[in-house]
Amino acid sequence: MSDDGSTSNGGTPNNSGGEDRQFVHFSFYKLDPAWRRLPEAEQESSRAELAAVIDAYGERFAMRPYTVAGIRPDADFMLWKVSERLEDFQEIGTAIMSTAMGSYLDTPYAYLSMTRRSQYVKGEGRSMHKRGRIMWNPDSRYLLIYPMVKTRPWYQLSKPARQGIMNEHIAAGREFPTVKINTTYSYGIDDQEFVVAFETDYVGDFLDLMMRLRETEASRYTERDTPIFTCISCSVLEALRSLGGAAQALLATD
């Protein structure tokens, strides 16, 4: 589920027609198995160093860690970051890769986007669509993410035609109140057009939502909506512990 964005001026909270925007970044990390062959003490010290670095940046801007270890073969953990400064994402990326554990990490996926008000959802309220800012649920257990691209014919439809299609699409989404959507926009700043992130405590409800949305007319205009990531919310240290290692193997057998 997503909504379409139109061209607007600028890319910061000060030159977007008065709209208070944010930069959003989803970075997925994959651990080299060679790290698990290091001595246990070296594993522990490098894990603690990396956790301290990530936690320190978490005090500067909004960030939520997730694990995908054991769920996908191509990524192990993810950081969902929100900031007013694009430079924050570059700085934390450099800091992570400068740690001892960072030398064993790759970034197979990374998605940059921005918030903006939806042109299809009217009125004010708590929805991120209406306010143009991320307002995540800190207690939500799961996050499901995918980048999205619409077909070119979508943009050739008239605004009233697109509004009617999106009205149906939005109404279908509201049939599943346990799933909260965060749509952010990537036009011109990354390869996709949207990044869509769903917060929920019930993965089965998300599955049913996706099946329902396939039945809407808007689905005809989706060119790409993969890869899809199912992420589990956790602390930074829990995310790093989910990567395994000697100490974690001992804990699992206790």
Summarize this, please?
With 254 residues, the protein is of the alpha+beta class. It has one domain: Alpha-Beta Plaits, CATH 3.30.70.
Q: What is the overall number of helices? A: 8
Give the strand tally.
Answer: 9
CATH top level is: Alpha Beta
Report the uncertain regions.
4-14, 124-130
Q: How would you name the CATH homologous superfamily?
A: Apc35880, domain 1
**How big a fraction of the residues is strand?**
15-25%
Write the element-wise H/E pattern from the N-terminal end onward: EHEEHEHEHHEEHEEHH
Number of domains: 1
**Rg result:** 19 Å
Structural class: alpha+beta
CATH architecture: 2-Layer Sandwich
Helix content: 25-40%
Mean pLDDT: 88
Largest sheet: 9 strands, antiparallel
Chain-wise SSE layout:
Elements: E1 23-31, H1 40-58, E2 62-67, E3 77-83, H2 87-97, E4 105-114, H3 128-131, E5 142-150, H4 152-156, H5 159-173, E6 179-185, E7 194-200, H6 203-214, E8 222-224, E9 229-233, H7 236-241, H8 246-253
Antiparallel strand pairs: 1-3, 1-4, 2-3, 2-9, 5-7, 5-8, 5-9, 6-7
Helix pairs in contact: 1-2
Overview of the structural elements:
- The protein has 254 residues and is an alpha+beta fold.
- It has one domain (23-253): Apc35880, domain 1 (Alpha-Beta Plaits).
- 31% of the residues lie in helices and 25% in strands.
- It contains eight helices and nine strands.
- Strands 1, 2, 3, 4, 5, 6, 7, 8 and 9 form a nine-stranded antiparallel sheet that branches.
- β6 and β7 form a beta hairpin.
- α1 (40-58) runs antiparallel to α2.
- The longest helix is centred in the first third of the chain and has 19 residues, at 40-58.
- It is elongated and about 60 Å long.
- Mean pLDDT is 88; it is low at 4-14 and 124-130.
